[in-house]
Design a protein that fits this description.
29% helix, alpha+beta, 397 residues, elongated, binds flavin-adenine dinucleotide, six-stranded antiparallel β-barrel, 2 domains, FAD/NAD(P)-binding domain, seven-stranded mixed beta sheet, 18 strands
Length: 397
């Protein structure tokens, strides 16, 4: 009988695995051939593992104002996480936006911290083990994989969400939770780019705007304002601002982009395009003028009333209608998941089945882009281990 069986060797499962006190018999089951596949892909292979800022600044970066993970975050916050890595020989670096990365900019160095620690503890994850089901027993659980049956006193489901299924996250944990009577908040996809109409901006691909103001409209009504960086892709919009907004964006919504033109933008002796170059990259200025039927070489006073009105609108509120979302294949996180109605906020233990715990993206927790999701996963894995270290007495050190 194992003391703890952890299903999923992602950030939350791995953090739990290394934090459980030595002496406990811990089994980690991972269906992929390697641990931490999503961790390796994170941050474009650079792994933005957390964000700077105090706790009060962290909470609002999550759904429900961080209410669900307040305890997990407060007991193992970004400072504690950074100290965890540096104490294990992984130097970190912070970019100008407050995002924290390994100094090497290599996610595999982050994974190596866990692999090394697990090796020392004698807890190497068993990979290629796809968990298909579990049964609560009088004492503990029976966990079945394609190959075997395992028994454990405690079971942690840390199987992640439903996006990027190629990395192993196909919602297995959600199905297991539902099958054992746990409520699920409907799942959606977050932190993905959007396709828009108009989409004729091949010439704009790769252009990014810093700290631009934009508004999300739903059914003609303003839903929320943002100020963030934005990126033009070949077929729509992306960048940190859109990624964060994507947690709320639906097909048919509108993004209203405000370039905040100064009143005297066209006052000098410059033609329209040259005047707009002070406000945005030339290619974007040319595209915007073209969308208003105005030649870049035209001088503002020469424009007709209709052209001036169209230009003023395009500069103050250029509308992009959302035609498609990134979907499960390209969204970085899952919104929704196992509901906290059925899970203790204090310990992350199921309220329905004692001894069953949840951690990470399987739960109804999602954060903004910037390292918040990995922080949440690490903090939740840590909280479960801390709870179990106190509870499982008489064993371990
Ligand atoms: C491309 C990409 C880039 C990202 N970049 C960042 C970033 O830079 N910063 C950030 O904060 N967040 C980032 N994220 C989000 C972050 O990676 C996730 O929020 C985080 O990995 C969630 O951790 P987790 O432990 O909950 O689950 P996961 O990392 O999803 O791990 C779950 C594990 O469980 C395994 N599993 C699932 N079902 C079973 C089963 N039935 N049996 C056995 N094993 C199973 C899976 O194979 C997987 O290894 C990124 C996500 C993606 C997709």
């Amino acid at each position: 009988m194992w003391d703890v069986i952890i299903v999923g060797a992602g950030p939350s499962g791995l953090m739990c695995g290394v934090t459980l006190k030595s002496g406990l018999k811990v089994l980690i089951l991972e269906k992929n051939e390697i641990s931490g596949k999503k961790l390796l892909a994170s941050g474009g292979g650079r792994c933005n593992l957390t964000h700077t800022g105090n706790l009060e600044a962290l909470y609002p970066r999550y759904n429900a104002g961080g209410r669900y993970i307040k305890r997990a975050l407060s007991l193992f916050d970004n400072q504690a996480l950074m100290a965890f890595f540096t104490a294990r020989g992984l130097p970190l670096t912070v970019d100008e936006g407050g995002r924290v990365f390994p100094e090497s900019q290599l996610s595999r160095d982050v994974l190596e911290v866990f692999s090394r620690e697990l090796r020392i503890l004698g807890r190497r994850p068993v990979t290629g083990e796809h968990v298909r089901g579990f049964t609560p027993l009088e004492t503990g659980f029976e966990v079945t994989t394609d190959e075997k049956t395992y028994r454990g006193r405690i079971l942690l489901l840390a199987t992640g969400g439903v996006t990027y299924p190629t990395l192993g996250t196909t919602g297995d944990g959600h199905a297991l939770a539902r099958a054992t009577g746990h409520d699920l908040t409907p799942t959606g996809y977050g932190l993905g780019g959007i396709k828009t109409e108009p989409d004729n901006f091949e010439t704009l691909q790769g252009i990014s705007l810093k700290g631009v103001k934009f508004e999300l409209y739903k059914k003609g009504r303003k839903f929320r304002s943002y100020r963030s960086d934005l990126l033009f892709t070949g077929e729509g919009l992306s960048g940190p601002g859109i990624l964060n907004a994507s947690r709320d964006i639906e097909i048919g919504d509108e993004i209203h982009l405000d370039f905040e033109p100064p009143e005297n933008l066209f006052a000098g002796p410059k033609n329209c395009l040259n005047a707009m170059k002070g406000l945005m990259p030339a290619a974007l200025g040319a595209w915007l003028l073209d969308s208003c039927g105005i030649s870049g070489t035209a001088f503002y006073p020469q424009l007709g009333k209709r052209e001036k009105t169209a230009l003023a609108r395009a500069l103050a509120s250029k509308v992009f209608t959302v035609t498609a979302l990134a979907g499960p294949m390209k969204s970085m996180i899952t919104t929704g998941g196992v509901s906290f109605k059925d899970v203790s906020l204090k310990t992350l233990e199921s309220r329905k089945i004692p001894g069953l715990f949840f951690a990470g993206e399987i739960l109804d927790v999602d954060g903004e882009s910037g390292g918040y999701n990995l922080q949440a996963a690490f903090s939740m894995g840590h909280l479960v281990a801390r709870t179990l270290n106190e509870r499982i007495s008489g064993l371990g050190d």
